[in-house]
Amino acid sequence: MVETIFDLPVEKQIFYAVLGFSWTVYLWEAYLSYRQRRIYRTTTHVPQELGKIMDSETFEKSRLYQLDKSNFSFWSGLYSETEGTLILLLGGIPFLWAVAGSVTTRFGFGPEYEITQSLVFLTLATLFSAITGLPWSLYNTFVIEEKHGFNQQTLGFFLKDAVKKFAVTQCILLPVTSLLLYIIKIGGDYFFIYAWLFTLVVSLVLVTIYADYIAPLFDKFTPLPDGELKTDIEAMAKSISFPLTKIYVVEGSKRSSHSNAYFYGFFKNKRIVLFDTLLEDYSPLNKAGESQPEQPESDETSSESKAKPKNKKQGCNNPEILAVLGHELGHWKLGHTVKNIVISQMNSFLCFSLFAVLIGRKELFVAFGFDDSQPTLIGLMIIFQFIFSPYNEVLSFCLTVLSRRFEFQADAFARAMGKASELYSALIKLNKDNLGFPVADWLFSMWHYSHPPLLERLRALGNTKQD
């Protein structure tokens, strides 16, 4: 008689269900990526409707860049899924927990010091993840991004940055985790409420201090100099009652030539951050291109050069920057930021409530190799990462759909401010600068794109024409 999964003990059913769902998600993602790679491979000429938006040279560059990224994503995703499967099958989690116990015992801490053991486990787990992920990160930065002209980092800078990121992460992660575990231990029947409130406070504090205290550890932030752009930004913010206090330019060009902009802060203390690569007048890549006369390109010069703009302006002019900020401020004015925070916290409260129901189920721990103990940190990992994975996938898709809706609304807000033409040209420039490929498989974009495809956004902005 053939034994089915339903004939197995409940803990085995849980284990194989988690493993099966993980591979189902991976195969679904791989199928979507295959569909998109087929688009990259077969769409070799600029479609007619893109003729006035994108020249054939940029189109081919973006096609090859996205194809390389997609191929890399396939292999890194396969490795990640295989690694995760082997960790589960070979009992990697209980093994690492036992190693953490051995370390704490050596320093005189017995099994009763569960939080201490949990912190050692967390440090070892994040260290393992950082080491196994390093080759992939190196390849992505120094092969793919370098090949397509985006990487601005040296190997020394990259490694120093990786060490710094790991150290800063530990400085935040370990104290927060220890306090969370302590709250769960002493919280009684309503611990999930206190745990949720604690994570709410931590997330708000991190959002508040990130750009002032954490981000400057990695990038240089300087106030936007006085001038026409600063005056116009302040006037636009005032016109919609945005409580702007400071405008910064971040030196993103030392890492990558990709561009970005964002705002942060709560209540009456809002700040705007612009990447120098977004600003046509500030981008060092433009200055590098202007400082050298154009010369015939030889194999030798091309192999030594890095981020080499030739007669190509990167970034946006001032009216276009104002249009991009009009879009970003639209997110604030339309309440998108607050709505996202509310959704996030409702989800967090729901998850902690369900965690409170499930944490006492011994079979969940036995399923993953913990026969004799039920550590709280392991319970958090099993329930939030494994048991909630189907719910997390559905939620992620819903948030992606909502994000696209918010993006259209923010574009419409900028258009209502009279900046449709400038936003139209800014979106085209940013797509070119970042080598975005404007043709997408409908199923891939529906599942993955948090921002609508370029053509959809341009159509929504109306039939505004470039100069």
TrEMBL record:
Q: How does the entry describe its membrane topology? A: Multi-pass membrane protein
Q: Which top-rank group of organisms is this from?
A: Eukaryota
Identify the residues that bind Zn(2+): 327, 331, 407
Q: Which cofactor does it need?
A: Zn(2+)
Q: Name one GO molecular function term.
A: metal ion binding
**Where does the CAAX prenyl protease 1 N-terminal domain start and stop, copy by copy?**
36-220
Give me the reactions it catalyses. Answer: Hydrolyzes the peptide bond -P2-(S-farnesyl or geranylgeranyl)C-P1'-P2'-P3'-COOH where P1' and P2' are amino acids with aliphatic side chains and P3' is any C-terminal residue
Q: Name one GO biological process term.
A: CAAX-box protein processing
Presence of the UniProt keyword Endoplasmic reticulum in the record: yes
Location of the protein in the cell: Endoplasmic reticulum membrane
This protein's GO cellular component annotations are:
endoplasmic reticulum membrane
Q: Where is the active site?
A: 328, 411 (proton donor)
Which residue ranges does UniProt annotate as crossing the membrane? 14-32, 86-107, 119-139, 166-184, 190-211, 349-370, 376-402
Q: How is the cofactor bound?
A: Binds 1 zinc ion per subunit.
Record bears the keyword Transmembrane: yes
**Which intervals hold domain Peptidase M48?**
224-463
Might you give the EC number(s) for this enzyme? 3.4.24.84
Main location (coarse class): endoplasmic reticulum
- Cited function: Proteolytically removes the C-terminal three residues of farnesylated proteins.
Please report the name of this protein according to its UniProt entry: CAAX prenyl protease
Q: What is the lineage of its organism?
A: Eukaryota, Metazoa, Chordata, Craniata, Vertebrata
Q: Which gene encodes it?
A: ZMPSTE24
